[in-house]
Design brief:
Elements: H1 4-45, E1 49-54, E2 59-62, H2 64-70, H3 74-81, H4 91-95, H5 99-106, E3 111-118, E4 130-140, E5 146-155, H6 157-179, E6 184-187, E7 193-196, H7 198-204, E8 235-240, E9 246-257, E10 263-272, H8 274-293, H9 299-310, E11 317-323, E12 329-336, H10 342-348, H11 361-368, E13 372-374, H12 382-385, H13 389-397, E14 400-410, E15 413-423, H14 431-494, H15 503-535, E16 543-546, H16 547-565, E17 569-573, E18 578-581, H17 583-600, E19 606-613, E20 616-622, H18 655-665, E21 669-674, E22 680-687
Parallel strand pairs: 17-19
Antiparallel strand pairs: 1-2, 1-5, 3-4, 4-5, 6-7, 6-10, 8-9, 9-10, 11-12, 11-15, 13-14, 14-15, 16-18, 19-20, 20-22, 21-22
Helix pairs in contact: 8-14, 9-14, 14-15, 15-18, 16-17, 17-18
């Protein structure tokens, strides 16, 4: 039996419940629609590009940011991207190496895709190429299965280009910084070195990177004000080389600030001014040197002043060698800077350069008359350059490693050589040092020449005074005798008859007077000949003549003089020869040589030898007198010079000078061979006339 009343009550309840359910479903549908709309709006308006991809690689949906990022036309998006495009088969993604990130996401892993450059040349793309980063997120169901992939893109083109710009500018800055010729140092506010360019490393003697991270005080010389003094003007700052050498610089400092004004470091641009300062000092030195060298006319003082000027300003050693008139070289000065080398200095003083060792640097500079720079004196070459093995050992003891040799030249004449040496020094000579040495040598040569000219002028004045004294004596003596003889003869003639002198005695007195007149005449002729020689007016009457006849005639004329002096005169003619010459002038030469032998022969026999040697005829006059010292054997051929400076020896000292000049005018020579205590042998050599007998 049915309960109709209960059934009647249930139906309305069910209807009411259904209505409630429908209302709730409707409400939840509205809520879902609202949620979906919110999600769609959020997806569409998200600031980042979002692309929904199914597990097969097809694109399900893209948002506005995606479309804005890739700038793909709407019809292409609808008809290609959302229908046919598959990310897993995109060749560009495969080329860029992105596909492995998708496979990882499909396995359920979050993946971050690094920035990739997408080429704008692809047909579907518009605009410029862009750099895009990505993040892949797998969407899983309740069972953990991946159902979709969410790909979020971020356009990092501007950031990447900014980074590239920064990198490029940094590279450009680094290139400029590295190649700056001026040394540059940058430090942190704590004075720690953060940047050093190669020029600075080279200046201070450090390897690349060796100074980075070290305090700048490592470079500051003792006494340098610490810290920085930025300013518009450079200031002098002394730094310390790694080896300890002090480096004088002109340094311009500046503060490095960020955009907001914060100090993040200091920059110093350094310029080495040692050479500039040395140049200034050397200009002052050379200028002062001229004044010092000109302050004395004594050659010894001049050379001593020169050597003291050079050390230590230009070198550790200074050697001065002078070229003498006879061609020999005398070591005149040796000055050193280091007292420890005094024993070596004593050895160095003993060595004199010569033409026999042309490899020796001072000898080369002297005899070739050209400056010589040896920046580094190589140890293995010292033996070749030295004057001897002992000299090589002395050079090693002196620790010489660099050398400059400059000839002293004045008025085109080489006077000597100035040698400057560096010993145990860190530096070597350069072309600039050579320039300084040449300037000093030029002033020194002029000073030495002035000293020599003054010395010779003084000697010339002394010689003149001596000559005038001798000339007065030489002229007065025969004139006094002549006057006396004439007065006696005159008185005798005034006496009547037999009271006067006998005829023979009168003849003798007149003979003496005539000889004294000839003596005066000869003195005057000698002085005139000297004047003619000096002015080039000495004339020659050249003709063929026999040397035997010339000697015979000269000996005949001189025989009376030798007989009266009691001196034996012998002649030995081994072979006659003919020459082309002036008979009177050649007779004058032989007469001078005979007179010289009679004067200095101490009354011992005199010998004349005549013979031929090759194409020359030789006429020698030998005496057995005291001989001539080696140092005087060239001097006696000069004007007003005599082997013995004594009033007891008569003559003006012109005979040998005139005789040598006459010999040379005949293309001949006149020389002397002598030893002290063994007499002297004067030899006249004349060219034999071609075709002569």
């Amino acid at each position: 039996m049915h309960d109709d009343a209960g059934h009647g009550r249930t139906v309305p309840q069910l209807e009411q419940l259904n209505e409630l359910l429908e209302a709730k479903v409707k409400s939840q549908g509205q809520l879902l629609a609202e949620t979906q709309e919110r999600l769609r709006t959020l997806f569409e308006n998200a600031p980042l590009s979002i692309q929904l991809i199914d597990v097969s690689g097809r694109t399900l949906q893209v948002n506005a940011a995606w479309r804005a990022l890739w700038r793909i036309p709407p019809d292409v998006v609808e008809n290609f991207i959302l229908r046919d495009y598959n990310v897993l088969t995109d060749p560009q993604l495969e080329k860029q190496g992105i596909l492995p990130y998708f496979h990882r996401a499909l396995r359920g892993e979050n993946s971050r895709i690094p920035a990739i450059r997408y080429d704008a040349a692809e047909p579907q793309l518009a605009g410029r190429a862009r750099w895009v980063e990505g993040n892949l997120y797998p969407v899983k169901d309740a069972a953990g299965e991946v159902r979709q992939l969410v790909l979020i893109h971020e356009d990092v083109t501007e950031r990447r280009e900014a980074q590239e710009l920064i990198l490029r500018k940094s590279a450009e800055f680094e290139a400029v910084y590295q190649h700056l010729p001026e040394p540059v140092i940058m430090t942190s506010p704590e004075r720690i070195i953060v940047l050093v360019n190669p020029a600075a490393n080279a200046l201070f003697g450090y390897a690349p990177g060796e100074l980075i991270g070290r305090p700048v005080s490592i470079l500051e010389a003792e006494g340098t004000e610490p810290g920085h003094a930025p300013g518009a003007a450079a200031r002098e700052v002394s730094y310390r080389h790694r080896g300890g050498e002090r480096i004088l610089t002109s340094t311009l400092s500046s503060v490095a600030r960020s955009a907001d004004g914060e100090v993040f470091g200091y920059v110093a641009i350094v310029r080495d001014i040692r050479e500039q300062r040395r140049e200034e000092e050397m200009r002052r030195f050379i200028s002062n040197a001229g004044d010092v060298l000109a302050s004395s006319l004594d050659p010894r003082e001049t050379l001593s002043a020169l050597a003291r000027l050079a050390v230590p300003t230009l070198g550790d050693w200074c050697l001065i060698d002078l070229l003498e008139d006879d061609g020999s070289v005398r070591r005149a000065e040796v000055v050193i800077a280091d007292p420890r080398h005094e024993p070596v200095k004593a050895k160095v003083t003993r060595f004199a350069i010569s033409r026999d060792r042309p490899e020796n640097p001072p000898a080369r500079a002297l005899f070739e008359a050209r400056p010589l720079l040896i920046p580094v004196l190589e140890r293995e070459k010292i033996g070749q350059m030295a004057l001897s093995d002992e000299h090589a050992q002395v050079i090693l003891e002196a620790e010489v490693h660099s050398m400059i040799c400059v000839p002293l030249v004045a008025r085109g004449r080489v006077l000597g050589v100035l040698s400057l040496l560096l010993a145990a020094s860190r530096r070597s000579y350069t072309e600039r040092d050579l320039s300084y040495a040449k300037q000093l040598a030029g002033k020194a040569a002029q000073a030495v020449e002035n000293s020599r000219l003054y010395e010779r002028a003084t000697e010339a004045i002394s010689a003149r005074d001596e000559f005038l004294s001798i000339c007065s004596h030489e002229l007065k003596t025969p004139l006094t005798s002549l006057k006396l003889q004439l007065e006696l003869a005159g008185r005798s003639l005034q006496k009547p008859g037999s009271a006067g002198l006998p005829s023979e005695a009168l003849t003798n007195r007149l003979g003496v007077a005539a000889r004294q007149l000839r003596r005066v005449e000869r003195l005057i002729d000698d002085m005139l000949d000297v004047s003619r020689i000096a002015t080039g007016m000495l004339t020659m009457d050249m003709a063929p003549l026999s040397v035997r006849e010339l000697v015979t005639e000269t000996v005949h004329q001189a025989s009376e003089l030798f007989q009266s002096a009691g001196v034996a005169l012998t002649v030995e003619v081994s072979e006659d020869a003919w020459v082309h010459g002036d008979r009177a002038r050649l007779a004058q030469v032989l007469d001078n040589l005979l007179a010289n032998a009679l004067k200095y022969g101490e009354g011992k026999p005199v010998r004349i030898d005549v013979g031929r040697r090759g194409d020359r005829v030789e006429v020698s006059v030998s005496d057995q007198g005291p001989g001539i010292a080696p140092r005087d054997q060239q001097r006696i051929f000069q004007r007003f010079e005599r082997a013995v400076a004594s009033r007891s020896i008569t003559g003006l000292g012109l005979g040998l000078h005139i005789s040598r000049q006459i010999a040379e005018r005949h293309d001949g020579t006149l020389d002397v061979e002598s030893e002290l205590g063994a007499g002297a042998r004067f030899t006249l050599r004349l060219p034999v006339e071609v075709g002569g007998s």
